């Protein structure tokens, strides 16, 4: 960590634990003194931003601190490795500082003290920038200053005003509540109205808030925010990560989406969320190939209940609307809406698959399987495939993929067994059997209408476990 000596205004490198230091939180101007400028005394003196460095050093020295950290000059941004390390360490550096000076240069120097209304400072640019969010949250002690270093007050004293401006609860601001004790969606909401100069930085500036790390790849655009959500999903089972809403304009252009949001803006909401965890549901995980396995409550009306509640009442489940495009693969529909449903027990949780991030005008229905020239059978865990008839298709049990042409003009039977003890759902109740170990034959065949069009037919037959061979032979 590189620090400024507040007495000599020289930069000093500390490879291990640094001495106690003060830290500055501010918004950048057009003429800041950078690391490259700092070594040249005549060059740095011409920078208007150097005055801010001198004044902060004077303040820190007066408060008894021999060292100070400022982002403009303490990071060599010409070194990509140093920049990446600094960005991944920044939340910790602000958290470990003995004191943080928050300089609101556009706050009036004639501000009336004590500050009793948010109107005195809510217009300040500091509250609109992405990087200053972690600089508000991480330090234990923050003192706010206005123009010409007029003291405004401490974070703890201004907590109610800061909550009005930022939407961040007082308990978070004072450190009485940890960041990981509030939901992912709530934290994203704090960043929803903030901006960064570089598109990628809206993701990078949030890493510390979610306690994740990832490499910097400037030029990747909005993929940085997708990677951030990847890392969050690896660290938490908080389904509020998926509780976002697209704008009406965005939803009209792309009415079908994946599970991930495109930016923190899509988390803007007056609603708060509370995640819940249950042994009845598995973990939502990254599958690779741009897909997510989501454990959720799946309803027939297309409602997918996420494992989170509205507010703290624990009575209303937050969910999304989705459509099944085939083979247990879903896309989100009506992405500008979140759906609230009264929470009722018992809830049967299922595992479905979503793309991480897609934006589509029309869903690609996997039921149009002629496009793939093969039939794929996907079974839930409570159903086991025992055999395939005719016997020549026995190998299908290993691949679960069958060329469509093999179904044209020929019936293929799938001998399956249902174990109701896994989910408690009697999927074959209508055919008169509900005991453990129910055996069924799914008979499938196809009619080819044209070179690229097929009609599929199926029949479902209940059989005794020992009669499957005989029944299949006469189909």
UniProtKB/TrEMBL annotation:
InterPro entries: DUF8212 (IPR058525), HET (IPR010730). Residues 21-115 form the Heterokaryon incompatibility domain. Pfam families: DUF8212, HET. Residues 223-251 form the DUF8212 domain. Coiled coil: none annotated. This is HET domain-containing protein. It comes from Trichoderma simmonsii.
């Amino acid at each position: 960590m590189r620090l400024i000596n507040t007495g000599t205004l020289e930069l000093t490198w500390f490879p291990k634990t640094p001495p106690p230091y003060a830290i500055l939180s501010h918004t950048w101007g057009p003429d800041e003194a950078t690391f490259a400028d700092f070594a040249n005394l005549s060059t740095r003196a011409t920078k208007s931003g150097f005055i801010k460095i001198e004044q902060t050093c004077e303040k820190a020295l007066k408060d008894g601190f021999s060292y100070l950290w400022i982002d403009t000059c303490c990071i060599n941004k010409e070194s990509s490795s140093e920049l990446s390390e600094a960005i991944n360490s920044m939340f910790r550096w602000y958290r470990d500082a003995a004191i943080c000076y928050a300089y609101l240069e556009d706050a009036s120097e004639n501000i009336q003290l004590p500050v009793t209304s948010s109107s005195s400072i809510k217009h300040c640019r500091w509250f609109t920038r992405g990087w200053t969010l972690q600089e508000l949250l991480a330090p234990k002690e923050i003192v706010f200053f206005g123009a010409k270093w007029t003291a405004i007050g401490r974070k703890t004293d201004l907590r109610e005003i800061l909550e009005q401006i930022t939407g961040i609860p007082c308990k978070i601001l004072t450190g009485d509540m940890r960041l990981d004790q509030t939901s992912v969606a709530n934290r994203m909401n704090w960043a929803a109205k903030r901006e960064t100069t570089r598109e990628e930085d809206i993701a990078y500036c949030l890493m510390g808030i979610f306690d994740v790390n990832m490499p910097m790849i400037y030029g990747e655009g909005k993929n940085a925010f997708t990677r951030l959500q990847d890392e969050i999903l690896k660290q938490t089972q908080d389904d509020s990560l998926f509780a976002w809403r697209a704008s009406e304009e965005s939803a009209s252009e792309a009415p079908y989406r994946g599970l991930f949001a495109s930016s923190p803006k899509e988390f803007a909401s007056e609603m708060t969320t509370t995640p819940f965890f249950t042994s009845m549901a598995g973990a939502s995980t990254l599958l690779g190939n741009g897909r997510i396995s989501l454990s959720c409550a799946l309803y027939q009306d297309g409602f997918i209940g996420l494992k989170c509640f509205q507010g703290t009442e624990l009575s209303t489940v937050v969910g999304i609307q989705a459509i099944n495009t085939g083979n247990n693969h879903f896309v989100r529909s009506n992405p500008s809406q979140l759906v609230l449903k009264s929470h009722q027990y018992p809830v049967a949780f299922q595992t479905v698959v979503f793309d991480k991030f897609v934006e589509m005008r029309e869903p690609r229905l996997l039921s149009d399987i002629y496009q793939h020239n093969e039939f794929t059978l996907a079974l839930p865990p409570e159903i086991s495939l025992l055999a395939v008839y005719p016997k020549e298709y026995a190998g299908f049990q290993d691949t679960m993929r069958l060329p469509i042409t093999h179904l044209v003009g020929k019936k293929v039977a799938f001998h399956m067994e249902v174990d109701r003890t896994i989910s408690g759902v009697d999927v074959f109740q209508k055919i008169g059997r509900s005991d453990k170990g129910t055996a069924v034959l799914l008979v499938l065949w196809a009619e080819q209408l044209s070179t690229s069009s097929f009609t599929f037919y199926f029949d479902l037959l209940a059989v005794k476990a020992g009669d499957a061979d005989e029944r299949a032979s006469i189909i």
